[in-house]
Write a structure and sequence with these properties.
By secondary structure, this protein is mainly alpha-helical. The chain has one domain (3-152): Four Helix Bundle (Hemerythrin (Met), subunit A), CATH 1.20.120. Helices cover 83% and strands 0% of the residues. It has 5 helices and no strands. It is elongated and about 60 Å long.
Length: 155
């Protein structure tokens, strides 16, 4: 394997690993709050489950960027990366979703936990409670778009 391919693979790994870590942490934070609510009021399960799942999207975004990268660098088909500059470009293209996915996943989990608390006290405010973690999601989507645009336009 050449060094360019190694850097490109590192980018794909970081996109998946860091965004997945953020999602796992965020879903865990929200899940703890959700479990407490369901223990007190099992009828709130569906609402709190939706709020718990929201931070899981960052991991999906990172995985999507990794798949696109792997396809473009020849691991899943396509032209193999052979030079260092191209490998570094792929690494750089993967970093937005890797970094933003890590941070936004964790903070979306915290925001989801707070929204779960809101639903526990005022179940009729579920629609409003969804907006708070959705605002954090915006930044993960922006990073996803930047990474996809960058990865698909290398070469």
């Amino acid at each position: 394997m050449n060094i360019g391919m190694a850097f490109a693979l590192l980018g794909a790994a970081l996109a998946t690993g860091l965004a997945g870590w953020g999602s796992a942490k965020g879903v865990g934070i929200a899940g703890q709050a959700a479990a407490g609510v369901v223990a007190e009021d099992p009828s709130q399960f569906a609402k709190v489950l939706i709020l718990e799942l929201l931070p899981g999207t960052q991991g999906i975004y990172g995985l999507l960027v990794a798949f696109i990268t792997l396809a473009n660098i020849g691991v899943l088909g396509g032209n193999p990366v052979t030079d260092l500059p191209t490998g570094l470009m792929y690494l750089g293209a993967c970093l937005p979703i890797a970094i933003a996915g890590l941070g936004s996943g964790i903070y979306q989990g915290k925001t989801s936990a707070a929204s779960i608390g809101l639903v526990a006290k005022k179940p009729d405010q579920f629609g409003k409670a969804m907006l708070f973690p959705a605002m954090v999601e915006t930044y993960a989507i922006l990073a996803l778009l930047v990474s996809i645009l960058a990865v698909t336009n290398i070469r």
